[in-house]
Amino acid sequence: MQASPIELLVIAPHPDDAEFGIAGTVAGLTAQGKKVVYVVVTSGEKGTDDMDTRPEILKDLREKEQLGAADLLGVSEVIFLRFPDGLLEDSYRYRLEIARQIRYFKPRAVASTDPYRRYVWHRDHRVTGQVVADAVYPFARNALAFPELVEERLGPHVVREMLFWGSENPNYHVNITDTFCLKLKALKCHRSQLRPEQIVEIENWLRQRAEKMAEGQNYELAEAFHRVEL
Predict the structure, then answer these.
(1) What is the edge-to-edge ordering of all strands in the sheet holding 172-175?
(2) Are 174 and 219 in contact (CB under 8 A)?
(3) Distance CA 44, CA 212 (A)
């Protein structure tokens, strides 16, 4: 059984990645009544500097934080794939799972991390962006690409648009002036990642970044992406 088609499928390597990269855009879409679904690939169980933290405890905490942030943004559903944090590989299993989610939800657009950011970039982000791009084309749209999905009666789906956040070559900007405060509020749900003394610094950094992304536009704050139309 397949879900009803949605507007946007956001595929994030870790909890909080979507809030940093695309939450303002997501909030704008859901405010218009459009459906957005999150797929979170890992549970971020290694995302701490505290060597005494148990990964299984952090996993549960970060998933709860992600659910809270998604709820604030009006996201319809959050899928946790629970791949191992920090160990993502461009593998058959990973490509299969992302193609499965695309065929199931049938999104008009898919968003993820840019795989082509140079030098300093979390490897999970780089690998995820490439896997998502390959899953969109050709694997989600080629009917026989995965026998497993044929058996599950998940037919091919053609995505019309891809948005990559964290890009060094953005070509598409979204006005988030009216949703920036909600983006911040959603980001603050990730308490395990943001110490109280960091909040003001993060807010200032995000605002400066959003102002930079809006340069040349006729609005104050933006999120920027590399957009690919298919």
Answers:
(1) 77-83, 36-42, 6-12, 107-113, 161-165, 222-229, 172-175
(2) no
(3) 29
**How many CB atoms lie under 10 A from the CB of residue 201?**
11
For 8-66, write each residue's pLDDT tens digit: 999 999 999 999 999 999 999 999 999 999 999 999 999 988 888 899 999 999 999 99
Q: Kindly tell me the sign of the dihedral angle through the C-alpha atoms of 54, 67, 83, 168.
A: negative
Longest dimension (CA), the chain: 52
Amino acid code (one letter) for 51 = M
Contact present, 87 and 123 (Cβ < 8 Å)? no
**Orientation angle between helical segments 55-73 and 180-187, nearest 10 degrees:** 160
6-229 folds as Rossmann fold (3.40.50)
**Amino acid (1-letter code) at residue 194:** L
Please state, in angstroms and rounded to a whole number, the distance separating the CA atoms of residues 35 and 121. Answer: 29
Distance from the Cα of residue 84 to its chain's centroid: 17
Per cent of the chain over pLDDT 90 is 92
Distance, CA of 178 to CA of 120 (rounded, Å): 31
Interatomic CA distance for residues 181 and 56, integer angstroms: 31
Q: What whole-number distance in Å separates Cα of residue 47 and Cα of residue 49?
A: 7
184-217 pLDDT, tens digit each: 999 999 999 988 888 899 999 999 999 999 999 9
Find the Cα–Cα–Cα–Cα dihedral 224, 49, 14, 60, rounded to 10°: -140
Residue carrying the six token digits 């909890």: 15
